[in-house]
Design goal:
single chain, alpha/beta, Rossmann fold, Ribonucleotide Reductase Protein R1, domain 1, 3 domains, six-stranded mixed β-sheet, 13 strands
């Protein structure tokens, strides 16, 4: 589906057998009857994607930010969250984490505490409540979030069950109707979260939301193991101070990264070198990812 500058949308078919076009691409196209053909894809600013041993899954291109929506319940996977942030960092795309279901206690406070290490390393984290008995209760955090979305193209990412569809429908009241129109046009039947869809939030078409499918796994096969620490801001802050230039930050003596890993129960404090401590859980995730990516490259 291609949208022309006047706002009209039509089905366009890419040249060749395999389509390399993703949501958010700028394309050159021409009319062919009631439809069109895509002649060329313009150079992208970025491309947010995941890759496992079987395939590459592209979410969207030319993004201003990625909104990762998680919830107090069901409990979110910090490993999946970390993978999403690493993929965004690799493409230079800012990330905004939004924690939904602020009315659930003590689940929300526990989840908010788990996100402390991300706030410390500079990631913006916002609280949100999308359900409530009154309109005022329902809109807690929504105004602050809307301000962060204005004038930007944002990919909404997150696992199933966290309120992604609810959020899109709150911000884009005509989303359901538009989705139905697109599904009928593409003969794709019932629209589910298996497709990625672009929505304009405002009449001026300056603010866009891209709704993406939920996922259970987020592969990072496109990331080199030695690149990992550079894509994790809390680890990156200590790089360049290890004894060995090719330090893996796993077992080498004189490793500056390991020297800044805090204990399981340690407070979040700055070290005497001025760097924030790296949480034990974040470092554990780094080690698991390093081992996973290294093993796949050994075959």
């Amino acid at each position: 589906m291609v949208e022309s500058p006047d706002g009209e949308r039509r089905i366009c078919h890419p040249r060749g057998k395999k389509s390399q076009v993703v949501v958010g691409d700028r394309v050159q196209w021409q009319v062919t009857g009631d439809e069109g053909s895509i002649e060329r894809v313009e150079t992208r600013r970025n491309l947010f994607y995941r890759q496992d041993e079987m395939r590459t899954k592209s979410f969207a291109a030319n993004l201003d930010q990625v909104l990762v929506l998680v919830a107090a319940d069901p409990e979110f996977s910090e490993r999946q969250l970390a993978r999403s942030l690493i993929a965004a960092e690799a493409e230079g795309i800012p990330v905004l984490i939004v924690l939904n279901k602020s009315d659930l206690q003590p689940a929300f406070d526990n989840a908010w505490a788990r996100l402390e290490s991300y706030r410390r390393m500079g990631v913006d984290v916002l609280p949100l409540r999308l359900q409530g008995e009154t309109a005022a209760a329902t809109e807690q955090g929504l105004d602050a979030l809307q301000q962060r979305l204005t004038g930007k193209t944002t990919l909404v990412l997150g696992p199933s069950g966290v309120g992604k569809s609810t959020l899109v429908n709150r911000l884009v009241p005509h989303a359901r109707a538009l989705t139905g129109e697109i599904s009928r046009a593409l003969n794709s039947g019932k629209h589910t979260t298996t497709s990625t869809t672009w929505y304009w939030v405002d009449g001026q078409r300056s603010t866009a939301l891209i709704d993406s499918p939920g996922f259970q796994e987020f592969g990072l096969n496109h990331i080199e193991p030695m690149q990992l620490a550079h894509l994790m801001p809390d680890l990156r802050a200590t790089l360049g101070h290890c004894r060995f230039y090719n330090c893996t930050h796993l077992h080498e003596p004189g490793c500056a990264v390991r020297a800044h890993v805090q204990g399981e129960d340690a407070a979040a404090v700055a070290s005497d070198a001025g760097h924030l401590a790296i949480s034990a859980n974040r470092y554990r995730i780094y080690g698991e990812l390093f081992a996973e990516l290294s093993a796949r490259r050994a075959y």
